Fold Beta-1,4-galactosyltransferase.
Amino acid sequence: MFSHPTRCVTGIVFFILAVICLFHRSSRVLVMYPKMPSGEGCDDAPVNGRRSRLCCPNTHSSKLLHPIRDLAPTYVQLIHEFPSVCRGSWEPTSCQANQKVAILIPFRSRELQLRLLLGRLHLILQQQNVAYSIFVIDQSGADPFNRGLLLNIGVRESLRRDPNITCFVFHDVDLLPENSQNLYYCDSSLRHLASGVDEFRYHVPFSNYAGGVTSLSKDNVIKINGFPNRYWGWGNEDDELAARCMVNDIKLSRPPEHIGRYHAVSHVKAHRGAGHYDLFLSFRGYLNDGLSALNDHSYHVIREHVPTQQTLLLPLPPLLNTCALTQLALSLNTSVAAVREAIWNTVQLTNLSSVRRIDVDRLLRPILYTHITVDVSPIRSRPVHPLKHTRESWIWFLRFYGWI
């Protein structure tokens, strides 16, 4: 039995340790707006019709309503709404964007959610004066879904197409932003944009959570070797992303919950992959598992069916820019003049049969985003093994999730 003074001293020591732990935990996770580079001197006004200065981040607030599931826009409707988009890319014309942002969406059999998300993303990103490109990485085959691997492939393939990308946003297809003030930019931190998801009652499940939607600069993505490739099935690849950033002294930041609001479009939930928590304990072997583990033999990009010239008999929307017209001509192996003639001879879209609507949608899809279908079975047959002596303790594990 401790004496009264001893109990007092013990209580004071525990109180001090608790305060230190709380201070240490909060010092890593920052609730803040992104630190924008070159914030001084930004100006959206062109000089002599030319982009002379950096774009100011536009935080204009737009009311974004929850969509009705059965009323997801078609690709034809999206083309009409965003006529200046081509190959999934857009940039402001009145000023020079200070970042080139790649939106990477891991995907499998979520067509409805994708069309809902595209309508929301193109709207918000253009309002924010973001120079962006949208990439959808579609996993083919019957292997369990591997979100981390798809995002690593997305980083690799997007940089092949545009080496000037400086910022990556990793975006789940079922999360729709509700606040246009949530800036899709990168700063020096791991930026957790989805700080308030409705299915979590607009709170994060735990302090180190970095799931759903995150942004990270290209330099930091390379520094942490991207995502892990070894999580087949749902769960924990986003936790390892946060842990990799933690050991590399990259802060975790997120906007206030009223800014980082997202609506989760309902779908059948997947179960957590077997053994994922145990895999997570070996995260310090990240230099052996990530971007560096990928090469041209790790996966195969599958070329999709190219429409024939007969598709030109179908009506096309009239509001297409030069880039979109060129893209269509290349896809159809025909001339821009032939595409223009098909548009000139268009009929009302409401007169289309459902089959012909689908054909037109498939034709227009590459204008709204870059679709990359991949076969990941090669890397599935060669599992990644972590480096030796990299296993974390269960005490660290419990602290990471805030359970002690």
Residues 301 and 374 are 4 Å apart (CA to CA). Confidence is low (pLDDT under 50) at residues 347-351. The two ends are 26 Å apart (CA to CA). Residues 309-372 form one domain.
